[in-house]
Amino acid sequence: MEIRNAIASEIPALMALEQSQKMSAHWAEGRYLELFSTPNSILLIAADPDLCGFVAGSVVLDECELQNIVVSANRTRLGIASALMRTFTGEAGKKGARRVMLEVRESNLAARGLYAKLGFHEAGLRRAYYQDPPEDAILLERET
Q1: 41, 94 in Cβ contact below 8 A?
Q2: CA 91 – CA 42 distance, rounded (Å)
């Protein structure tokens, strides 16, 4: 499996992957284009050999916010999300981030378990953060 920076021509594939996953953030094409035009953005893909996952976020000052992570439904539990997150955290550190933050649905126990294994800890709660269905978000963070 290869993890590398995404290229703009891959936006349609990124959108198709995230649309296939109900719980992922669904963005318009313009949101992806913004990531390519902002120097402190991070957009990594996992390919084996085709696109099987991606992670996106941005660094502001010394903090990095994970904004989206998606792994193909038929490729879960194979270490793809872990590999993406490790690379993402490393890239965030290279861009000056001292910590990485993210929100996760309270009911998403699989993702919360993954983040805990990667050293993230609870830093807060955002009530009714998610819609469809409405749900609280657990705020997680870790140092880079």
Answers
A1: no
A2: 7
